[in-house]
Specification:
With 267 residues, the chain is an alpha+beta fold. It has 2 domains: 1-119, Thiol Ester Dehydrase, Chain A (Roll); 120-267, Hotdog Thioesterase (Thiol Ester Dehydrase, Chain A). The chain is built from 4 helices and 11 strands, in the order βαβββββααβββββα. The protein has helices at 22-39, 154-170, 174-179, 256-266, and strands at residues 3-8, 51-58, 67-78, 81-90, 93-102, 133-138, 184-193, 202-212, 216-225, 231-245, 248-251. Strands 1, 2, 3, 4, 5, 6, 7, 8, 9, 10 and 11 form an 11-stranded antiparallel sheet that branches. Helix 1 (22-39) runs antiparallel to helix 2. It is globular and about 55 Å long. The relative contact order is 0.15.
Length: 267
């Protein structure tokens, strides 16, 4: 079963680079699986499955005013949970792909459409190392949903909070990097949800550099309850440096000064 839903991009969904903010892609996955459940005769109200994991690979920017189509399909069952594959298109061009893993769905979808799944590989082995930035925050009311729990897409906002703080600490001021022509973009982001969290609870985000490649670097994240100290979620993001190559924006090597700072942070 493959379902589609389409909508225009709102101005509020774009960021300072004039493209859709990366967490909104993940929020749109929810529109896809809502349409999928409705087509299967089980429309979702407040009683909806828990999201255990979400991953998105960003293939090309989506801009204000473009019409996006979300295509979603059941892809694989795993111990009673369901992997759903999502594709975001503008026209016929694929702009992003990803997955959501929904808990305890049962056998609602008997026919699966096997596909290569975007997964959060190795999340169980994630642990802080090297220089680690700890960022405190408290859950805002705007980040909660009617259950009083935090909406799964909002965790990606928190990854950004931690990411910018970490980069500032090691000397990579992103605002300055944009000005001098050395920006990067998010190529892939994943979050594994371990425990629920609710409005007004205190959290702390740990962020560290996991890998440094020729054109990209990978950051890892651990979100913990600041008082109980249990892990709430784990995350990972891959950032790719971009620049003008023959009048087109392409991935480019990480500037040496930025690479040195990232490698030093890894320890």
């Amino acid at each position: 079963m493959l379902v589609s839903c389409s909508f225009p991009v709102r101005y509020a969904e774009t960021d300072a680079q004039y493209v859709v903010y990366y967490a909104n892609h993940v929020a749109w996955f929810e529109l896809g699986y809502e349409a999928l459940f409705a087509a299967a005769g089980r429309p979702l109200g407040h009683d909806r499955p828990t999201v255990l994991e979400a991953t998105c690979r960003y293939r090309a920017p989506i801009r204000y005013g473009e019409t996006v189509t979300v295509q979603s399909q059941p892809a694989q069952e795993e111990a009673g949970h369901l992997w759903i594959a999502h594709t975001l298109l503008v026209g016929e061009e694929v702009r992003a792909t990803g997955t959501t893993l929904l808990a305890d769905v049962g056998d609602l979808f008997s026919a699966m459409m096997p596909t290569d799944l975007e997964r959060f590989e190795g999340w169980k082995q994630i642990a802080p190392h090297g220089r680690c930035e700890i960022v405190p925050l408290r859950v805002r009311y705007a980040e909660s949903e009617p259950t009083r729990g935090v909406h799964f897409a909002r965790f990606f906002d928190w990854l950004e909070v931690g990411r910018i703080a970490f980069l500032h600490r090691i000397g990579l001021d992103y605002a300055r990097m944009e000005v001098i022509g050395s920006p990067f973009l998010i190529a892939q982001a994943s979050c594994r949800y371990i425990a629920p969290v609710c409005f007004d609870e205190p959290l702390e985000i740990a962020v560290w550099a996991e890998k440094v490649r020729q054109r990209s670097f990978v950051l890892a994240y651990r979100i913990r309850h600041a008082e109980a100290k249990h892990t709430v979620a784990l995350g990972r993001s891959a950032q790719t440096f971009i620049g003008q190559v023959r009048d087109q924006v392409r991935p480019v090597p990480i500037p040496e000064w930025a690479r040195d700072l990232l490698l030093e942070a890894m320890g």
